[in-house]
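In the previous lecture we treated proteins in isolation. Real proteins rarely work alone, and many bind small molecules. This record shows how such a complex is specified: first the sequence, then the SMILES for zinc ion.
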Amino acid sequence: MLRNAADCSQCGTAPEMRREDDRGLFMPACPKCKHHASPYPSESGAIALWNRANAPQRPCLGCGGKPRLRNSRLRGLWAFQCRGCGHSTTGSHTVMGAVTAWHRHNTPGNGHYWMLWQQRHQELQAQHQG
Ligand SMILES: [Zn+2]
Ligand SMILES: [Zn+2]
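The predicted 3D structure, ligand included, written as tokens:
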């Protein structure tokens, strides 16, 4: 159990700290679902990153579903994806970038963001079919 660390946003389990001693990196990770934030060179910094990545996120603008954080190992990109309709933002190289992108992308009550959301949704559906 880590002091000052939020529970995993994906499954509600308290995270554990993983250490990479050879590179001097710290990374909180969920022991249950393996969800984790980016590694960081200090313990307190790593916990701060984890907390920001696991703070409650805005619901999906389209279906109101909750997003989950995904990491593409292939390209090293992070993105939030809606558990309801599968909508996702474009990938970012950092967890914080993904948090910001999802937050902005799902801003309620704004015609501009709603239009962008729909555009992205069509893009995703085209990718799915192709
Ligand atoms: Zn978890
Ligand atoms: Zn959705």
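Summary for your notes: The pocket of zinc ion (ligand 1) is lined by residues 8, 10-11, 13, 30, 32-33, 35 (CB under 6 Å). The mean pLDDT is 92.
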